[in-house]
């Protein structure tokens, strides 16, 4: 693949266009589902702990698949991988669209995830080998613009569809588009790859599946089952042991499945740390704002989607702008500025009340998204820029894997904070209310029921505020790390240097 692309006098815009459209539709599908989850719960008669597997199952499959993508990208052509990825995504979409029981819906969702897991690292790798370092920021910015359009229109479109049609229309809407993209890829993608004599280490695949899968399952289950559940701490422990064994094995292999040597490059290691920490903080907004808006304030799904729209649009518009600013000024100025905005706005979200206005929420979320738009792509691109070319597949796979893991950890942490603090506040409020009520007159059953409802809403509000407060400190850690960023340039590859020396020696002999 790399050889084919590098021979071209200019970047392969045709290949990139097809890949970006495929990535866009898979991203759109993810954002469409968020607001539809309550409708799925009602229609299939399942609870929140069950429906959350629509997200958890997706993350599990991605966490298992993504580490193997570095091997797949090295071995197979862009065309072959794209058609497999898009074919899996389309098949999963069709299956989910006809599901009338939750297991079939979940199976379709997980098949979708297997295709998406291949798509994103593949696109990132093609972009890295197609553009020189000095133009990579602008290219990544355009990439960000297209992909950020999905979360911009997804929630609003989803809210409209769910209010007017059955939730299955979300999948029926995506299916014909996915089929067209598959056909376009089949017709337009012509790249070939010379046969590469590398083989997958199946024991590494098993270890990575158990390791990343165990971590993702454990942290994702913590919010519902609690940290003292064997399902949580046992799977996390098994995941850690398998992951340590996996890392040790990779260090001994000549052609590792996932090369942890990428962390020997300081800017890549730093960028990975910042994006992981920021991912954890970012989930506070994605998770807690919809709960506050719909559960506590009673705002409709359509209006909830519209509330998130300006922030997502602003993030999409800023993406190419921050890409060009990154090429000009580097990552540190952008990251520090963006993270400072993120910290302040996240703190303001920890001060929500039952009277906070819709307009205030919309503006605050938009400003927060503006701050994050200055961080994610520039920091990630700066880290990847330091890697030698042969590490690109491993760097993109590592970034995507860590994003999944940090997302699961962030979700579990913030859900746990919200749940435990809600219970604590509810207990304290109930005790105070009963004390005040019995001090005057014995309350009636109706008054008690109304009091209980008010306490539940206020306690949940305080729990959400506490979770946002913790997210503020998490974002502050990323801000501190951002001060250590410096502009990265491709490092020398010892293996390439050795090959050059061998060629020189062979000529002399």
UniProtKB/TrEMBL annotation:
Domain Major facilitator superfamily (MFS) profile as annotated: residue spans: 15-490
SUPFAM superfamilies reported in the protein's UniProt record: MFS general substrate transporter (SSF103473)
Subcellular location: Cell membrane
Name the record gives this protein: DHA2 family efflux MFS transporter permease subunit
InterPro entries in UniProt: EmrB-like, MFS, MFS_dom, MFS_trans_sf
Transmembrane segments: 12-33, 53-74, 81-105, 111-131, 138-157, 169-188, 200-219, 231-248, 268-293, 305-326, 333-352, 358-380, 467-485
Species: Mesobacillus maritimus
Disulfide bond keyword on record: no
Keywords noted in UniProt: Cell membrane, Membrane, Transmembrane, Transmembrane helix, Transport
Chief location bin: membrane
Gene3D superfamilies: MFS general substrate transporter like domains, Multidrug resistance protein D
Membrane topology annotation: Multi-pass membrane protein
Family designation: Belongs to the major facilitator superfamily. EmrB family.
Domain of life: Bacteria
């Amino acid at each position: 693949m790399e050889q084919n692309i590098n021979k071209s006098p200019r970047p392969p815009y045709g290949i990139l266009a097809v890949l970006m459209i495929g990535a866009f539709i898979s991203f759109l599908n993810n954002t469409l589902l968020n607001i539809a989850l309550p409708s799925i719960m009602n229609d299939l008669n399942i609870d929140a702990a069950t429906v959350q597997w629509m997200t958890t199952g997706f993350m599990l499959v991605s966490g298992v698949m993504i580490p193997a993508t570095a091997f797949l990208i090295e071995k197979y052509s862009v065309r072959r991988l794209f058609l497999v990825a898009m074919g899996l995504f389309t098949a999963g979409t069709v299956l989910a669209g006809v599901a009338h029981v939750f297991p079939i819906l979940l199976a379709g969702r997980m098949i979708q995830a297997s295709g998406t897991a291949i798509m994103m690292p593949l696109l990132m790798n093609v972009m890295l080998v197609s553009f020189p370092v000095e133009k990579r920021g602008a290219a990544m910015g355009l990439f960000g613009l297209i992909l950020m359009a999905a979360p911009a229109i997804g929630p609003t479109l989803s809210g409209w569809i769910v209010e007017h049609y059955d939730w299955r229309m979300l999948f029926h809407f995506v299916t014909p588009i996915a089929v067209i993209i598959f056909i376009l890829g089949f017709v337009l993608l012509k790249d070939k790859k010379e046969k590469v004599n590398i083989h997958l280490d199946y024991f590494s695949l098993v270890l990575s599946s158990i390791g990343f899968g165990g971590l993702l399952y454990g942290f994702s289950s913590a919010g519902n089952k609690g940290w003292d559940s064997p399902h949580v701490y046992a799977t996390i422990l098994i995941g850690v042991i398998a992951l340590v064994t996996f890392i040790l094995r990779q260090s001994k292999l000549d052609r590792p499945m996932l090369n942890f040597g990428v962390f020997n490059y300081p800017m890549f290691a730093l960028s990975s740390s910042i994006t992981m920490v920021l991912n954890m903080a970012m989930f506070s907004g994605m998770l807690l704002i919809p709960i506050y808006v719909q559960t506590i304030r009673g705002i409709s799904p359509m209006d909830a989607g519209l509330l998130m729209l300006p922030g997502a649009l602003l993030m999409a518009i800023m993406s190419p702008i921050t890409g060009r600013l990154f090429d000009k000024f580097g990552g540190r100025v952008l990251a520090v500025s963006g993270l400072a905005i993120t910290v302040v706005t996240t703190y303001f979200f920890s001060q929500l009340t039952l009277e906070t206005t819709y307009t205030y929420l919309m503006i605050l979320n938009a400003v927060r998204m503006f701050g994050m738009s200055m961080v994610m792509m520039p920091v990630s691109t700066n880290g990847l820029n330091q890697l030698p070319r042969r590490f690109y597949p491993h760097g993109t796979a590592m970034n995507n894997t860590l994003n999944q893991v940090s997302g699961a950890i962030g979700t579990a942490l913030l859900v746990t904070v919200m749940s435990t603090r809600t219970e604590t506040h509810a207990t304290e409020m109930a005790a105070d209310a009963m004390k005040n009520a019995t001090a005057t007159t014995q309350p009636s059953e109706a008054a008690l029921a109304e009091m209980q409802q008010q306490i539940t809403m206020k306690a949940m509000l305080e729990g959400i505020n506490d979770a946002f407060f913790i997210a503020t400190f998490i974002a502050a850690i990323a801000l501190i790390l951002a001060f250590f960023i410096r502009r990265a340039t491709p490092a020398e590859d010892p293996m390439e240097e050795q090959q050059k020396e061998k060629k020189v020696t062979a000529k002399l002999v």
